[in-house]
Specification:
1 helix
Amino acid sequence: MKKILLTLAALFGSTLTILAQNGNLLATFKTGPQAGKLTLTLASTERPTDYSVDFGDGNIVRKGTTEPFDGWDGSVDIEGTPAAGSTVKIYSGGTITYLEVVGKATESQIETADLTKLTQLTELDLHANKLTTIDLSQNTKLKKLDLSRNELTALDLSNNTALTQLDLNSNTTLSALDLSNNTALTKLTLSKCLMPTLDLSANKLLRSCYLLDMGLTNLTVGEKTASGLYLSVNNNKLTTLDLRQAKGLENKGKLFAANNNLTELLYDKIGTANLAGNKFSFATLPVANINVLTYAPQQPLDIVLNGSEVDLSAQQADTYKWYDTDGNELAEGTDYTAATGKFTFLKTPAKPVYCVLESTRFPKFVGSNAFKTVTIQPVGTGISLLKADNAAANTAYYTLDGSFAGFNKQQLKPGIYVAKNGKKAVKVVVK
């Protein structure tokens, strides 16, 4: 028993010696299977501070700062080369308010981090590591947080109400995030976090918001009051976007919503907007109260084919030209008839066809950015349309689907007919 007590006393004394020499244990990390250099950047805004780091081999590396951290100067880099799966420990008699441990694929990366004792931490940068989870519940003074390019599956930020900047870019396994308590946020980066739904209605002070390549189908923006709001939601799956409360988009505000599936944009005023690559048409493209608008190209216009008929009159285009998929232009009067944006195909095209629409209202839809419909395969009426007199003797009248309607024009119901006399035919309107 006496021997055991002496051993325990020795261990306790050794621990006290370590604490006396190095300070308190403030943080620990575990490295992944890749051995290599690891750099820790430490600082305190309070005063010059000494730090001691054990990179997992029991040897202590000591360094200190010479001045309080001002956001630029006053930090210290401590480097080591931990073996794979090492536990790295940080000791200090002072505090850590700034901590950076950036991983590199060819060197060490951290898999776990215990920062629960860093209650004074205001800035944390652990980007490009292998973290799947991290407990930040005790780090209530955090203002800037960068956990981008990790492997997070979940993140609880409910206690981090002081956060003003958050970067979680490229955490592709993070499918949901609750930011309802983070009302002080001014900058948010979630690009390439694959989450279908995001609610930012509580984050009224946001001024910079990067939400690219997220697979978003539903985004609640809500009220945004910061002037000069920058909102980028490029390359998502949004079909509608409500920005009516985002007053920060007015004047110098910028919206980037290219390459979605937008058919509706609700807003009051926007300074600059890029809406290219969506599903807007001549009839739905938002142009009012946007100072600078990029709209071309758009995705091909979905159209309804009713047998041999297509109605594009709602687009109010200046010109309509039909082409087959080989680029050959169809001939009006031979391949189809046209009446104020309504088309009837007289022949069944050998290949699918599409329409190119032009309008002086939207001059940027030209060349490779031309506004087109999807390709369709219409069924022709079976009647060839040739130039002829309207009402010679023995003229037969047919509906546009090829059905015989009669010989007496006066007895026909109002509508459009094909009048055929011998080998000649012409389209006529009966009123």
